[in-house]
Amino acid sequence: MDINVVIDIIDEARASHLKAKNMLIKIIEQDYEIYMSEDVITTIYYILKGNIKVLYFFKNIMNKWNVVPFGKDVIEESIDFSILNNSDFEDILQCMCAKKNGCKIFITNDKKFIDCGIEILDYDQFLKR
Questions:
Q1: DSSP assignment of 29-55, as one string?
Q2: How far apart, in whole angstroms, are the C-alpha atoms of residue 36 and residue 41?
Q3: Residue 109's beta-bridge partner residues?
Q4: Are 77 and 108 a contacting pair, CB within 8 Å?
Q5: 76 vs 117, which has greater pLDDT?
Q6: What is the pLDDT of residue 63?
Q7: What integer pLDDT is reported at residue 77 of this predicted model?
Q8: 11 and 47 in contact (C-beta within 8 Å)?
Q9: N or C: where does the chain have the smaller number of CB atoms within 10 Å of the terminal CB?
Q10: Long-range CB pairs of 112-121, under 8 A, 24+ apart, other chains included
Q11: Is residue 35's pLDDT more than 90?
């Protein structure tokens, strides 16, 4: 899951919150495994201004979601990919991390998210599956 998706799940004021919530319900009902990189946790906490609700959300998902590191190999591969393709480094890091961990789908709201070799879906595409 991309960071914008996780923020949509947490923050009820965001325009895509309901879609994110419906997507999460489908993920749970269909027993998908959820992966996010560990840097998403600190970034979300920073973006949402240290809201205590965020910490409770993290506490709730820690034993249910897979929180995975990038590792040096993913960082180096992402740097090379970003330079070669003149693409968003953070997006590539997230996608390469998902790929390294065997994810089949990457869910994001980012309309310009670059293809790094796994299927990229937005909420509507995922909910239609």
A1: HTT---EEETHHHHHHHHHTTT-HHHH
A2: 9
A3: none
A4: no
A5: 76
A6: 92
A7: 95
A8: no
A9: C
A10: 112/88, 113/2, 113/88, 114/85, 114/87, 114/88, 116/81, 116/92, 120/95
A11: yes
Buried b (16+ CB within 10 A) or exposed e, 75-108: bebbeebbeeeebeeebbbbbbbbbbeebebbbb
Taking the C-alpha atoms of residue 123 and residue 41, their distance in angstroms, rounded to an integer, is: 21
Examine the pLDDT at 10 and tell me if it is beyond 90.
yes
CA–CA dist 94, 106 (Å, integer): 9
Positive or negative torsion for Cα 77, 80, 84, 86: positive
3-state helix, strand, coil in the chain (%, to 5): 55, 10, 35
User: CA angle 58-60-61, nearest 5°?
Assistant: 70
Domain 3-128 has CATH 3.40.390.30: no
Residue spans of the domains in the chain: they are 3-128
Q: Show Cβ contacts of residue 8 under 8 Å, excluding neighbours closer than 6 positions.
A: 14, 16, 17, 19, 20, 109
Q: Return the residue matching tokens 């299927």.
A: 119
